[in-house]
UniProtKB/TrEMBL annotation:
Enzyme Commission numbers on file: 4.2.1.161
Enzyme class: lyase
Single GO MF annotation: lyase activity
Regions crossing the membrane: 26-44, 56-79, 91-112, 124-147, 159-180, 208-226, 246-276
Record bears the keyword Transmembrane: yes
Organism the protein comes from: Halosegnis marinus
Keyword Protein biosynthesis: no
InterPro entries on file: BABR_hydratase, CruF-like
Record-given protein name: Bisanhydrobacterioruberin hydratase
Key words of the record: Lyase, Membrane, Transmembrane, Transmembrane helix
Gene: cruF
Amino acid sequence: MAESETAVSRTTVETRLDDLVAGNRFTIAVVFPLFGAVLLVASAESLLPAPLNFNPLLVLFGTLVMRLPLVAGVAPVVGRRAAAGIGLLTLYAYAVEYVGTTTGLPYGYFAYGVDLGPMLLDKVPLGLPVFFLPLVVNAYLLCLLLLGSRSALVRVPVVIGTVLLMDLVLDPGAVALGFWEYELGRVALDAWPYTATGDFYGVPWSNYAGWVLSATVAVVTLDRAFDADALRARLRGCEFMLDDLVSFVILWGGINAYFGQWVPVALAALLGVGLWRTDRFDVPPPPWLERRRAE
């Protein structure tokens, strides 16, 4: 296939994906996370039939749907360099998770309590990049909007802090659901200089030290792989590009609220404020709801 034909095919796919997301923003960014939060809480409380409790196919399907705005938004600016960066981060995600589940480094000892689908080497969920990479990319995009054209010396540490903020929302909610569990007080490798003695809603502080490391690797890689100016231009022209972060706030804010974990709820609200300041917490209602309001 000629290069021009390949470009046309890619443009056609990207346009159709844009139209699909733009035409279903409310369903993807609001309905799916609300429904997902209800299903996950119901699973944790064993209120659903056994086959539906934390059904890995449902979890993965719902996650992939909520990722669509991010995928559609970023796709047009993914060249060879960016694709290579994403590939490296995928390998890194698998590697650091395997080391973590095997040695307790760098996050602290933990074990999965819920079936998240096929496992790689019986240690790491095969779908891990779908859960990990969007956290970093969403944080990066939000900070690009909030910081404007500030240099990488400012941008990179702020994005790292935002990734850490997102994990302060995600991990307590996931632990409350039973997705995974940490062994508090156990020393990683018996030689690591910290112990997981304190905790934040069942999550050891060592986990967040590990996330500083992982976020630094991921953010620096993204910053080198992507053209920040091209991403900013795409952000200005693509109103749904951060809808996945809207879903994150609704899903994990709601789950933490159910379990009475109010600090993570407040941190989720802080992310919501950031989205509001960038005029991105404005998912329009579907046409049927607008017609009902008009009546």
